[in-house]
Amino acid sequence: MEERTRQNLDLLVERYPVLGQCRDDIASAYNILEEAYAAGRKLLVAGNGGSAADSEHIVGELMKEFKLKRKIFSAQADRLMKIDADMGPVLANNLQGTLPAISLVGEPALSTAFMNDAVPELVFAQQVNGYGKPGDVFLGISTSGNSKNVLYAAVTAKSKGLKVIGLTGQKKNKLETFADVCIHVGETETYKIQELHLPVYHCLCMMLEDHFFGNQD
């Protein structure tokens, strides 16, 4: 982990001392994500309620600029301008580099159809089964760590060769048994857990952005 990337983690713990207890797990989750993105893989994210909103939030930070400018590669910019003289420059100058991520809570037609026609608790598992490829990462967000639809998705992810990261509360839970790493934030009440989840995933997104886009001019 580069020094600039590590500084994000140092700052997180400085601002939220309660997260010091899960610092190593946050670092391990980062390493899993860095390895996946370096290999051209993607992230799948899911959760319920407030954690569903967090899933969408994470994707928003990864799929576009967060804190840094993210230029597309010059080779792609050249190809865009060769394809069309008018639209090419607009695309080349305004498209942003991305870290591919999909929120599994954001497909209402698919999810409502599946929940109506099949087994509702398998709705995330079905999407992992379709989208997941070996080397991808599944991030399951659950304040309890025992949300059935997240657990079924985690098991499916393992069967497909994905790495699994859990983001939960302090208590021991079922999700950690399937996760390659589980980040337990040090709270037990739902809203307090959620208040700590946000700085954790913001930190992970900043660390990834620093690594993959921090050396651009």
The count of strands amounts to 5
Order of helices and strands: HHEHHHEHHEHEHEH
What is the end-to-end distance?
Answer: 21 Å
| Mean pLDDT rating | 96
Report on the structure:
With 217 residues, the protein is an alpha/beta fold. The protein has ten helices and five strands. The longest helix has 24 residues, at 190-213.
Summarize the entry for a quick read.
The protein is α/β, with parallel strands linked by helices and 217 residues long.
Give the SSE layout.
Layout: H1 3-15, H2 23-38, E1 43-46, H3 50-62, H4 74-83, H5 87-94, E2 101-103, H6 108-117, H7 123-131, E3 137-141, H8 148-159, E4 163-168, H9 175-178, E5 181-184, H10 190-213
Parallel strand pairs: 1-2, 1-3, 3-4, 4-5
Features:
217 residues, alpha/beta, 5-stranded parallel β-sheet, 55% helix, 10% strand, globular
